[in-house]
TrEMBL record:
Enzyme Commission code(s) on record: 2.4.1.-
PANTHER family xrefs: GLYCOSYLTRANSFERASE (PTHR48047), SCOPOLETIN GLUCOSYLTRANSFERASE-LIKE (PTHR48047:SF45)
Family statement: Belongs to the UDP-glycosyltransferase family.
This protein's name: Glycosyltransferase
Naturally occurring in which organism (per UniProt): Dendrobium chrysotoxum (Orchid)
Keyword check for S-adenosyl-L-methionine: no
Molecular function per GO: UDP-glucosyltransferase activity
Keyword annotations: Glycosyltransferase, Transferase
Pfam family membership, one: UDPGT
InterPro entries: UDP_glucos_trans (IPR002213), UDP_glycos_trans_CS (IPR035595)
Amino acid sequence: MGSNGNDLHILFFPHMAQGHMLPLVDMAKLFAARGARITILTTPANAKIIRPTIDDSIYLHIIPFPSTDFGLPQGCENQSSTLTGNQRMNFFKAVDSLRDPFDAVLRDLCPDCVITDMFLPWTYYVATARGIPRLVFHGMNNFALCANDAFERCRLVVEEAESFVLPDLPHQIRMLRTQIMDFEKLAGTPMEFLLEKHKEIIEVDTKNYGTVINSFYELEPEYADHYRKVMGRRAWNVGPVSLCNHEMTGKLLRGGEQSTSVSECLKWLDEKPMSSVVYVCFGSGGFFSLAQLRQMALGLEASTHSFIWVVRNGDDNWIPEGYEERIKGKGMMIKGWAPQLLILNHTAVGGFVTHCGWNSSLEGICAGLPMVTWPLFAEQFYNEKLLVEVLKVGVEVGSKVYEFNPEIRPILEAASVEAAVRNLMGEGEEADERRRRANVLGETARRAIEKGGSSDNDIEKLMQELINLRKQNFPQLLLQLDLLLKQGYLQ
Ligand code: UDP
């Protein structure tokens, strides 16, 4: 380790949702491995998920979460376990109520810097009042951050357009209007709290000390530069953070809820030929209507490729008649939480059907896999563009509408699913070229995080900068102490 990291204390405060918490815990591990003193701030139920995946070098600081005060079920401390829009709103309110406990933690622990999630914008004000720099983690890549910014600039002009090109980006990125959420449209609806949150996030975005990004420079150099030079943000690309999980246990326990079928699933994969299986998973919040699940089931079956499919919907009454019997040996369903890192990196897996959540997309990239892209909401439609048009490792399934609610989201027919999977897993120059590119990206990703790689260097640079920052502030602190002594406040 180059910098004297042992001197540096960083406090991480992840937003309690799997897609935000898992990467930030991974990031904390990367900084700890380089010698920084790390505290992760979280709540009791989330601590249970995190603890088995970290070692003694990381300190877990736990504050209570007021679930029941905000009408949430006892123990509901993670956004991934909120089911309705109303629950989600109450969850956000409960998270916002952590402001004072967060301040008390800063007072007691005096970290040199805090790295907190974008959904906790108030942490900027609390940290700043205590003279502590706040770095923000958006959970997004540079491309999506730039695309978001481009959309904000053209939002009013493209209001009525069916499609439009995002202005002033390094590539010509054409979006359908239906693929982007206009937060302003939430005004006066039950989802208005998201508009408020969106405004608060934007309000502090340029004030933060900087941004830490789960990406690596070589993946999206034009956008990493655009984010820094055109948008003027101070940013460090420190990913892919999931690559910190070298050990089997880290990969197995990541995310907490263990499905009983893990060993069965790995045994099943062991018996399959190399690169023959498609892995299908839609992250922690990818729920579908029963009608859509049925079409997906039929499409996967018709593709004739072997598949592992993670289904998070609770009941089974959507499964087509005789389906489980027909797919025996060919398809496996995991009902619940899957050990995604283990599956993606198994040699039998040759393709990934993803909802384009950034963690999943980047984990697919690290595993060197081509992907079928099936975005649902959030910045997933931007990630699809990055995968399909910029990196050219993705095949679109044809998802065209941004929609949280699975019951009103347009249904994609089995034929679209079948065609996309056949295209992904098939032979021919186009599919081979896609696989080759994916493979190269996987190698580049691994190199970025190794000693001397671009992300390793960015972590090192950031740590050094934070150490220097503290050194600069140190004399000022001494002067203040001196003054207090002179005034008789200290003995
Ligand atoms: N994940 C997992 N098992 C599952 C579903 C998801 O381990 O069954 C992990 C996945 O590896 C990723 C994260 O959960 O790290 C999901 O993040 P992503 O950004 O892909 O999607 P989100 O859940 O935020 O929509």
